[in-house]
Design a protein that fits this description.
Helices cover 52% and strands 3% of the residues. By secondary structure, it is mostly helical. It has one domain: Orthogonal Bundle (Cytochrome Bc1 Complex, Chain D, domain 2), CATH 1.10.760. Helix 1 packs across helix 3 and helix 3 packs across helix 7. The radius of gyration is 15 Å and the shape is globular. About 20% of the residues have low confidence.
């Protein structure tokens, strides 16, 4: 079941990208929804290295529920993670936070290996969620 969920999350950006390229507008009950590409703005898997793809899988499984840009109907629980946050705080600080967590975030030091944390950080450096670019 977990493998199926992981596969769905890895393939979802490809489907989203396809819909966005076709210019499909979405509505629900007559209300225009946000463009599909702004809901899950993850880079296509085919553009990622093997390590970045492994980081994407871990990010989607463990981090995305709190750290992806929010849908218009709710706010993000944790900070939006992307390359600018990694650059501003530094890789060492991000690694420390992933390992030991905070008052609002669990630490992953017992369930993630150091190499997996490196893969997540490498993947975060491929993300760019800044609105003004």
């Amino acid at each position: 079941m977990a493998k199926l969920a992981g596969l769905i999350f890895l393939l979802l950006p490809l489907a989203v990208s396809s819909q966005a390229q076709n210019g499909e507008n979405r509505e629900k009950d007559g209300i225009a929804l946000a463009p599909v590409h702004s809901i899950v703005p993850l880079p296509p898997s085919k553009t990622l290295s093997i390590a970045e793809l492994a980081g994407k899988k871990l990010f989607v499984q463990r981090c995305s529920v709190c750290h992806l840009p929010a849908l218009p109907s709710y706010s993000v629980y944790g900070p939006v993670l992307d390359r600018k946050l990694v650059a501003s705080r530094g890789e060492a600080a991000i690694r420390e936070r992933i390992m030991h967590g905070s008052s609002r975030m669990p630490g992953w030091q017992y369930s993630l290996k150091p190499a997996e944390i490196d893969e997540i950080i490498g993947y975060l450096q491929t993300l760019n969620f800044t609105q003004n670019e």
